[in-house]
Amino acid sequence: MHEYAFFLGCIAPNRYPGCEASAIKTSEKVGIKLLPLKGASCCPAPGAFGSIDLNVWYAMAARNVVLAEEMKKDIALICNGCYKSIYEVNHILKHNDELRDGVNEVLAEIDMQFKGSIDVWHLAELYYDEKICGLKKIRDSVTTPLNGVKIAAHYGCHLMKPQKERHFGDTENPMWFEELIEALGAEPVQYRNKMQCVVPVVVSVDMISSMLLTLPMRR
Amino acid sequence: MAAKSYNIPELDTKLADRRYHLTDANPEFTQKILKTSRTIANMCYQCGTCTGSCPSAPRSSYRIRLFMRRCVLGLEDEALTDPDLWLCTTCYSCTDRCPRDIAPTDVIMAMRNLAFLRDIVPKNFLQTCQLIYNSGHGVPNNDVNRAARTKLGLPADPPTTHSYPEFIKGIQKIIDHYGLKENADRILKGD
Asked: What is the per-residue pLDDT across B4-22, written as a single tens digit (0 to 9) for each?
C-alpha cells in the first residue's frame, strides 16, 4: 500500500464531494491509501493570490506543504488549480534559496519550516505510474467495464503547463489520460481544442470574454 | 487612433500615441519585473508566438506581445493602468511555445503584483482573500454540500481548516505579515 497525504483544496470537498469520495474509494482498490491532511487550507488560488502578491502565494502554499512534511508523506491531490499552487511552489522553493529563506522567515512566526523533503503528485499521474499503480492494475481492478461509453479527456493547463517545470512531456497533444480511459473499457474521443484553456481566472474579471472563450469548447 | 476606448481620456490619448517617449520609460520597471517574474523578459525579440498562442487574443484586445514590449521598454504607467492586463488566463500556452524560453505569463503576474501596489486589482480577488482569511477556504462549505457529503459517507466537514479551526490563526498570521487583509479591506471599502 502506498500512502499519501491527500490534499483536498476547496472545490472538491466543498462543492463536488463526489470527487473526494470516489478518489478515496478507487485509490484504495488499486493500492493507494489517501490519508487526510489535517488543517490544510485553500491552496491558495493561483490566479487570485499570485496576481495580488506572489510572496503571499508562496508562503500560504508552503504552509500546506509543511503540513505534509510533518506527516513525512508525499502529497496527492485531485485539483488542477491546487496542483499548480502546491507543486509549483514546492518546486520553486526547493530550487531557490533566496525565496525559501524569505518564506521560512514568515513560517517561523507560526513555528513551521519548509524543508523541501517531499514531492507533490496528481492522483491521475499516480494511477498512470507503473511503479505506483499502472494501467495493468487498473485494467485488472475493473468490475464493470465502460464498454461503448465515449469519453473526451480534458487535461487542463495548470496540470501540464509550463512544460519545462512539469514532467508530463508533450503539451500540444498528450495521450496518457486517453490510455487510462481505455484501461476502463471506454473509448477515448479526440476533439479540437483538447488543450484549450477553460478560463476560470477571467470569469472574475470579464464575464463576456470568458463566455466567448469557452465557445469553441462546445463544438 | 487606438482600436479601443476605455472612456478615460488620458489613457485613450496615450494608447492612441504609438510613439516611444523616453520620458515615459522607467528602466527600474524592467528590473523589478525581471526580479519578480524570475524569467529573462528582456530577451524578447517580439516574434509574436505568444499572442498567436493566446486564447484571450482572438476574443479581446489583450495582446501579450504588447505587454512584453512595454516590459522591455519600461513603459510602467501604460502597462499597469491598461485594463487588458487582467485578461490573461494564465494558461501558459505562450510560455510553452516561446522560442526565447521566456515565461510571458510570469511577466504578466509580476506586472499584476506591481499594479496591486497602486490599488489596481479586481474586487473578486480581494473577496477571495477575505474568505480565506476568515475560514481558510476560498470556497467555504455550505449546508447543501454538508448534506451531500453525509449522503456520500464523508464527514460533514472536510478534514481541512473546517474541521480544525485552530489552524486558521496561522493562516491569518501569514496574510497579516504581508498586510494583505488590511489592503483588501481598504480597497473594497473605497469602492
From this structure: 777 888 888 877 877 777 7
**Beta carbons of B142 and A41 less than 8 Å apart:** no
Tell me the per-residue pLDDT of A182-200, one tens digit each, with 9 for 90 and over. Answer: 999 999 999 888 888 876 6
Task: Enter the ipTM.
Answer: 0.88
For residue A176 the three cell numbers come to 496518457
Whether A14 contacts B158, CB under 8 Å? yes
- Going by C-alpha positions, the residue among B100, B162, B155 that lies closest to residue B132 is B162
Q: Which of A42, A51, A112 sits opposite B132 (nearest CB)?
A: A42
DSSP H helical segments within chain A, as ranges?
A: 11-14, 17-29, 46-52, 54-71, 80-95, 97-108, 123-128, 134-141, 157-160, 176-183, 207-214
Can you say whether the dihedral through the CA atoms of A133, A79, A90, A74 is positive or negative? negative
Residue B48, C-beta contacts closer than 8 angstroms, at least 6 positions apart: B65
3-state SS track over A26-69: HHHHCCEEEEECCCECCCCCHHHHHHHCHHHHHHHHHHHHHHHH
Could B152 and A21 be called an inter-chain contact, meaning their C-beta atoms sit closer than 8 Å?
A: yes
Global pTM value: 0.89
